[in-house]
Amino acid sequence: MAAAPGAFSLREVLAGFQECVTEQREVLLGPYLCGWRGLVRFLNGLGAIFSFISKDAVAKIQIMENYCGGERREEYRTLQAMVRYELSGGLVDLQRRSAHPDSGCRTVLRLHRALRWLQLFLEGLRTARQDASTSAICTDSYNASLAAYHPWVVRKAAVVAFCTLPSRDAFLEVMNVGGPEEAVEMLGDALPHIRNVYGITQELYEQHHLLDLP
Ligand SMILES: CCCCCCCC/C=C\CCCCCCCC(=O)N[C@@H](COP(=O)(O)O)[C@H](O)/C=C/CCCCCCCCCCCCC
């Protein structure tokens, strides 16, 4: 079953992560940020308890959109160009946040870590039993990824919010890609692309020693 006209379908959102990889394995920031915008829209539909998460995500997406639409937009067309430009211009705070607190490199790193959470969460949803708890899948994915970078208070607030997540079937329904079986199939198609974007970014950041930016 296709999504109702005008309705929000996660299929289109996740397609952003497919479209953002070029044949040269570069990551186009435009579609990458579009993917994140769509995910935030989805998150907003899950209730006000998630607003502290969506506000932070939106702030980071906005920083990147400003670079991508700004005077140096050519330097922010791809992730690779951005890393080259910011590193060669000394535009990244490497030890502590000071002159360049919101560099593109540190901002994308936060989204990149969240992409790992997304990958684990979607894999969990896809492979879990029908009666599995979405909240448990989300908590496990979070603990195995993003939690390591968050202070205690954020970790607690996140886990409380996860407890309000609907059942797995209800969740798959909200994705608006048809019934649970179609949703599971769609996740199976989308996940390799998310893994690919994550892998390319991880490799690039490792190469340039950017994985611990403050
Ligand atoms: C069918 C599945 C669809 C899944 C759709 C999920 C939609 C998720 C949408 C957005 C994900 C949120 C991205 C969060 C980015 C967090 C970046 C971050 O780590 N920020 C922290 C560090 O930033 P700096 O201080 O260094 O600038 C910041 O401290 C964080 C604050 C807010 C809390 C972040 C908790 C993240 C939990 C992510 C799980 C989202 C739960 C969604 C439930 C489905």
Automatic annotation (TrEMBL):
<dbReference type="Pfam" id="PF08718">
    <property type="entry name" value="GLTP"/>
</dbReference>
<dbReference type="GO" id="GO:0005794">
    <property type="term" value="C:Golgi apparatus"/>
</dbReference>
<dbReference type="GO" id="GO:1900226">
    <property type="term" value="P:negative regulation of NLRP3 inflammasome complex assembly"/>
</dbReference>
<protein>
    <recommendedName>
        <fullName>Ceramide-1-phosphate transfer protein</fullName>
    </recommendedName>
</protein>
<keyword id="KW-0472">Membrane</keyword>
<dbReference type="GO" id="GO:1902387">
    <property type="term" value="F:ceramide 1-phosphate binding"/>
</dbReference>
<dbReference type="GO" id="GO:0010507">
    <property type="term" value="P:negative regulation of autophagy"/>
</dbReference>
<keyword id="KW-0813">Transport</keyword>
<comment type="similarity">
    <text>Belongs to the GLTP family.</text>
</comment>
<keyword id="KW-0963">Cytoplasm</keyword>
<dbReference type="GO" id="GO:1902388">
    <property type="term" value="F:ceramide 1-phosphate transfer activity"/>
</dbReference>
<dbReference type="GO" id="GO:0120009">
    <property type="term" value="P:intermembrane lipid transfer"/>
</dbReference>
<keyword id="KW-0967">Endosome</keyword>
<dbReference type="InterPro" id="IPR036497">
    <property type="entry name" value="GLTP_sf"/>
</dbReference>
<dbReference type="GO" id="GO:0005886">
    <property type="term" value="C:plasma membrane"/>
</dbReference>
<keyword id="KW-0445">Lipid transport</keyword>
<dbReference type="GO" id="GO:0005829">
    <property type="term" value="C:cytosol"/>
</dbReference>
<keyword id="KW-0446">Lipid-binding</keyword>
<keyword id="KW-1003">Cell membrane</keyword>
<feature type="domain" description="Glycolipid transfer protein">
    <location>
        <begin position="29"/>
        <end position="176"/>
    </location>
</feature>
<dbReference type="GO" id="GO:0032691">
    <property type="term" value="P:negative regulation of interleukin-1 beta production"/>
</dbReference>
<keyword id="KW-0333">Golgi apparatus</keyword>
<dbReference type="InterPro" id="IPR014830">
    <property type="entry name" value="Glycolipid_transfer_prot_dom"/>
</dbReference>
<dbReference type="GO" id="GO:0035627">
    <property type="term" value="P:ceramide transport"/>
</dbReference>
<dbReference type="GO" id="GO:0005640">
    <property type="term" value="C:nuclear outer membrane"/>
</dbReference>
<keyword id="KW-0539">Nucleus</keyword>
<dbReference type="GO" id="GO:0010008">
    <property type="term" value="C:endosome membrane"/>
</dbReference>
